[in-house]
Amino acid sequence: MRLAEARDRHGTCWPLAPMKAAFLSSTRRAPQPFLELREVLRPEPRPGYVLLRVLACGVCRTDLHIVEGDLPALEKELIPGHQIVGEVVEAPRTPGPLGAPESGARVGVSWMGGVDGACWFCQHDMENLCDQPTFTGYSSNGGYAEYVSVRADFTYPLSSSMDATHIAPLLCAGMIGFRSLRVAGVAPGERVGLFGFGSSASLIIAILKHWKCEVYVVTRGEAHRKRAEKLGATWVGKEGSRPPVSLDRAVTFAPNGEVVVSALSCLRKGGVVAINAIHLDRMPSFDYDKLLWEERQIRSVANMTRDDGRDFLRLAEELRLAPEVTVFSLNDANAALQAVKDETLLGSAVIVP
Fold first, then answer.
1. What digits encode the pLDDT tens for the residues 290-329?
2. Segments forming the whole domain that contains residue 223
3. 223-229 — which CB contacts under 8 Å span 24+ positions?
4. Rounded Cα distance, 287 and 259, in Å
5. Does residue 202 sit in the same domain as residue 161?
6. What backbone phi and psi angles, to 5 degrees, belong to 307?
7. Are 18 and 162 contained in the same domain?
8. pLDDT tens digits, residue range 49-82?
């Protein structure tokens, strides 16, 4: 069988070489394996896109929601993964509106893989709520592969001061955590509750400390509580316990509505809970008069804007954020997903092709 061919930006014709990728072919809640490893042709980048050689791809709980069917399937077959650090192999033939990275550049890719730019939300600086978005590793193929094609104007230039495995978790867990602080309206010096302490919370605690906030952590699992203490939390409690003070803001990370109600019960008057979860099992009923009245708020966090991403990455470099990671090979992508499901890792899982 003849290999497909592509033309580079100079018009030269070259064969598309094979690559390895981990595919999701059906969404089901089942034991391993979640994904099937295959050899396929490298993607050919369309105008305005870049071809990246994947250096590392973080494993996010959203990936687990996708492979287990908590989020509805958008494609019959899919390569997951949206926390991608890559090297530009082929720059776009037609640059995007914000320019394009050059061949050899190291860039990051996150969950938001593209927007239409024309809807009401894009026109009002709310591209995270775009009516026709592209989601990396969900509506388009992602980074559980040796190569990936992505929109050039949705890449982030990356510093060479950190290795790829430590940058990868910043590209979603860090960005969406930072977005959550913005949605919650956190101001320097406030009392902030973190309900759950996985990858995202373990990154944003450094930002909260930089802002001189008091951080109160409620989480299950002794290992996570010890990690929160090590990273400088003001107070740490078991799941279901209450901080010793009323909170100005809270961010919840568990896909559990009961955690949201628990966080709401810990707020002062006028306080805000931001829900950092793309999927929530259910919201139990609660007493409006006691918990929501007096202008307390519940806000959801939906995706992030490119400005969120750029602002966070600048701050991450300034603070020298270095997340704890466990590295898995692409062959072990299923083991990485299982580790996220079982919550056996203290930091983040990262796949290296």
1. 888 899 999 999 999 999 999 999 999 999 988 889 999 9
2. 174-300
3. 223/346, 224/197, 224/198, 224/343, 224/346, 225/197, 227/197, 227/202, 227/346, 228/194, 228/197, 228/201, 228/202
4. 15
5. no
6. -65, -40
7. yes
8. 999 999 999 999 899 989 988 888 888 899 999 9
CATH number at residue 183: 3.40.50.720
What SS3 class is residue 83? Answer: strand
**Residues forming a β-bridge with 218:** 195, 237
In three-state secondary structure terms, 228 is: helix
Q: Report if pTM > 0.70.
A: yes
Helix (H, G, I), strand (E, B) or coil at 33: coil
Q: 308 CB contacts (<8 Å, ≥6 apart)?
A: 128, 175, 178, 179, 182
Residue 297, exposed/middle/buried by CB under 10 A (0-12, 13-18, 19+)?
Answer: middle
Instruction: Decide if 316 is inside a domain.
Output: no
* Among 228, 185, 230, 212, CA closest to 241: 228
